[in-house]
Amino acid sequence: MNTDTTYKIYPAVSEVPTNWDTIAHSNIFLSTAYLKALEKSAPANMICHYIGLFQNQELVGIALSQFLDLNKVGSFGERDNCLKTSVRNFVFKNFSSHVLFIGNNMLTGQNAYALLDTISNADAVALLFQASEALKEIFRKKRLKIHLAVFKDFSETETEYFKTPDFASFYRFTTQPNMVFDIPESWQHETDYIQALTKKYRDQYKRSHKKAEAIQKKKFSLDDIQAHNPVINRLYENVAKNAPFNTFFLADNHFYKLKKLLKDQFLFYGYFLDDKLIGFNTLIKNGTAIDTYFLGYDEEHQREKMLYLNMLYDMVAYSINKGFSKIVFARTALAITSSIGAKPQEMYGYVRHSNPLVNRHIARLFKSLEPETLWQERNPFK
Q: Under DSSP, is residue 238 helix (H, G, I), strand (E, B) or coil?
């Protein structure tokens, strides 16, 4: 590693260097606007730190770390009521409750760091390892022992940067893939998408739209989010609590703060039936990509009106019509997002337990605790 490189850890966004956003321009999830929104509306069990990477005292890289206290999660997930789930919850609560992430546990994809061309990825990763060790000491002084250190999410190519002695004791893992929809350049309008579907999936598109004919969709302003906030939170929790595994729950003011600070980069759409809010979805503009964010819905209307599928089609239509190059659907509903055209991209992470004995068996432990998702990839296009 270059001996002229170093790092600095900041406990608040207000303390980061003034030129932070010149490096964050390629990723909105590392911008001060997003980080401020996260800071003001972080999950109750999360503490964020911000890492500056320096070369000859010049800022050349930026990164995010998140500490999660799983003891403060009310429910890890209520969908799978089985012995494996009970064992997993017990192990996490008692032996792995304090987790330090280099990256953003709320998102899928490489949102851990961004760099200038003047520093190599290998040097940056080496610095981030040093920073993670320093963060462990920061939390130790607060009487919080870090059980698990996790670096996430990286592509196969990016895993090359982790083939160093620093990461020799880490276990490389892969979980559910990131579902990404690459939009062909030739597509100018939603009709291009519909025409590209096979008859089976074009019929699915028509059937779902017919089911939702009575639903009105509305783009929410900041005031709209505030006015409907209690219902928004209830709809979000309905979906979140039915997930197979949760490490956090959003704060009640999360969407309001995002809209206030990200403004037009954050899109919130409400779905109404008989003037009643029955669902919502959110999108974040990230350069030429659209990132799908959190959503919520009423389970009864979701089934009856095929609401979730219609939301996905709406996201596709918006992204094509507005000229975006891809849609990041993250790790949700793999089979359904596959059925509308998203493709899986494997993502990798690195994890190490603070107890050497436990860490020796981390591969077997990780595989036994990771919720298994069986799904079949589909191709809806001709």
A: helix
